[in-house]
Amino acid sequence: MSRGGSGRGRKGNSSGMVTALVILFPAGLIFLPSTILLMVGMIPTAVAYVVDRDPDKTAPMTVGALNFVGVVAFIISLWQGGHTMGALAKVMSDPFAWLVMYGSAGMGWALYYGIPPAVAGWITLRAENSIAKRLGEQQELIAEWGPEVSGVVEPEEENPE
User: Fold this and answer.
1) What is the pLDDT of residues 55-75, one digit of tens each?
2) Which of 2, 41, 104, 126 is most solvent-facing, going by the fewest CB within 10 Å?
3) How much is the pTM?
C-alpha cells in the first residue's frame, strides 16, 4: 500500500520535469555551444550529486556553486568569441579553461570538507575557554566566601562518645 498522496506528488514532479524539458530543450538547441560547455564543465557537480548520500544534498550545492562560477567565466568568453562551434572548440582546447572549471569545483570540495571541522574546532575552543573562565570565577568565589559555596559538602565526623 502506498503512502497517502505519494502518487500525486510523483505525477506533479514528472509533469514539472516534462514542462522544464519542453522549455529547456529548444533553448539548449538554440544556445548549443553554451549548452555543451555547460554540460561538460559541470560534470564535477553531477558527480557530487551522485556521490552525496546526504538527503539535503549539500555537496552538490557547495561544489556546484563554485563549479558554475568557473564555467560561467568561459561561457562569457564563448559569447565574446561569437558563440559558434569554432569558439567552443577554442575554449575546450584551452587547458587553462579546464583547470579553472574543474579547479573551481575542487575548491568547492575543499570548502565542503574543510569548513565543518574548522567550525567544530572553533566551537570546541570557545567552549573550553568558557569552562576555564567559569572555573576561575568559581575559584574566586571559593576564596572570597569559603569552600561551602562550592556545593561540595564534606560529611561531618561523628563523635564516638
Assistant:
1) 888 889 999 999 999 999 999
2) 2
3) 0.65
